[in-house]
Amino acid sequence: MKRGELAKRTGISTATIRYYEDQGILPAPKRGENGYRVYSEDYLVKIKFIRDTQSLGYSLKEIREALQMLGTDMVIEDLKSLVRNKIVEIEDKIQSLRTLQAMLSGLLETPETEISNYMSSFRNSNA
């Protein structure tokens, strides 16, 4: 299939497909005798993988690395290790967000006079 058909079948734009190729996320497709890029059905699976992993919070860099690993004789334990690492990263983010939430909640408990004094320090006294 050509790039336009691949875009239609996957729901992403041709520009996104081109970007994925330029960034090494998708391998360059073979070219037909007419010079057009010819995409195999495998590209449908790869693009679904990209979209699914993006929705799980993986960056394009991580996705590119995972696709490269999957293109080799990757063992299941290596794939599980990638998932475990992502879980740890998510847990760290959750902890950071909880800390931020606690700090913001603490600000709401600050006496109004302190808040008022703080805000007045930003006002231009020369005005």
Compact summary:
By secondary structure, the protein is mainly alpha-helical. 66% of the residues lie in helices and 3% in strands.
List the helices and strands and how they pair.
Blueprint: H1 3-10, H2 14-22, E1 30-31, E2 37-38, H3 42-55, H4 60-70, H5 76-108, H6 112-120
Antiparallel strand pairs: 1-2
Task: Describe the 3D structure.
- With 127 residues, this protein is mainly alpha-helical.
- It has helices at residues 3-10, 14-22, 42-55, 60-70, 76-108, 112-120; strands at 30-31, 37-38.
- Strands 1-2 form a two-stranded antiparallel ribbon.
- A hairpin with a 5-residue loop joins strand 1 (30-31) and strand 2.
- The longest helix is centred in the last third of the chain and has 33 residues, at 76-108.
- The radius of gyration is 24 Å and the shape is elongated.
- The N and C termini lie far apart (68 Å).
Key features of this structure:
127 residues, mainly alpha, two-stranded antiparallel sheet, 6 helices, 2 strands, elongated
The rounded Rg comes to: 24 Å
- Major beta sheet, specifics? 2 strands, antiparallel
Indicate the proportion of strand residues: under 5%
SSE pattern, N- to C-terminal? HHEEHHHH
| Residue windows where pLDDT falls under 50 for at least 5 positions | none
